[in-house]
Specification:
Layout lengths: L10 H10 L1 E5 L5 E2 L14 E2 L6 E6 L4 E6 L1 E5 L6 E2 L1 E8 L2 H15 L3 H13 L4 E9 L5 E9 L5 E8 L3
């Protein structure tokens, strides 16, 4: 059995994430509890942005498997009265259509993101690579968490974005 250190989201923890370029979040119970990342129940959590200094290797340990990505931005969604985070959001980027399609197919394979929905979108954009599209692919749940790929594609731009939303299955 693997043992690994999980990140905290207090000031020292965020500094360590920025310095090491690694974040590991523990959602094996199905949720990310504020107390487990050294935050108070009324905290909203940090936004971790490293666009100027490089990408973070993010791992979210789920009940049935890990979610992994290279990102320069991680957000946490909650309310002041929740003891957990409703959502963890991170951003994947690609500098070519081929790389972008590879990221989408990776989500299909690893997280159970809907293959038919993904392939229809891919086929549409391959037929018109200069197009612009905002599209949310039906979520996958193979990790025991809901993983949604929200595609933000604009063929006129150099960098394409996938917003990945990770939710508890509740």
């Amino acid at each position: 059995m693997k043992t690994y250190e999980f990140s905290t989201l207090d000031a020292a923890g965020v500094d360590a994430i920025r310095e090491r370029r690694t974040a590991r979040l523990d959602m094996r119970s199905g949720t990310l509890q504020k107390a487990s990342v050294r935050l108070t129940e009324d905290s909203f959590g940090p936004e971790i942005n490293t666009r100027d200094t490089g990408k973070i290797s993010l791992t979210i340990a789920g009940p049935s498997g890990d979610i992994q990505g290279e990102t320069d931005r991680i957000r946490f969604n909650t309310t002041q009265s929740r003891p957990d985070f409703r959502e963890v959001t991170y951003f994947l980027t690609a500098t070519s259509l081929g790389e972008y399609i590879g990221l989408i197919r990776d989500g299909v394979e690893k997280y159970g993101v809907d293959s038919a929905s993904a392939e229809r979108w891919i086929s549409s954009v391959e037929g018109n690579p200069g197009s612009k599209s905002d599209f949310s692919i039906t979520s996958g749940t193979s990790t025991g968490l809901e993983v949604n790929y929200d595609l933000r594609y604009d063929g006129s731009k150099d960098v394409q974005v996938i917003i990945v939303h990770v939710h508890p299955l509740t």
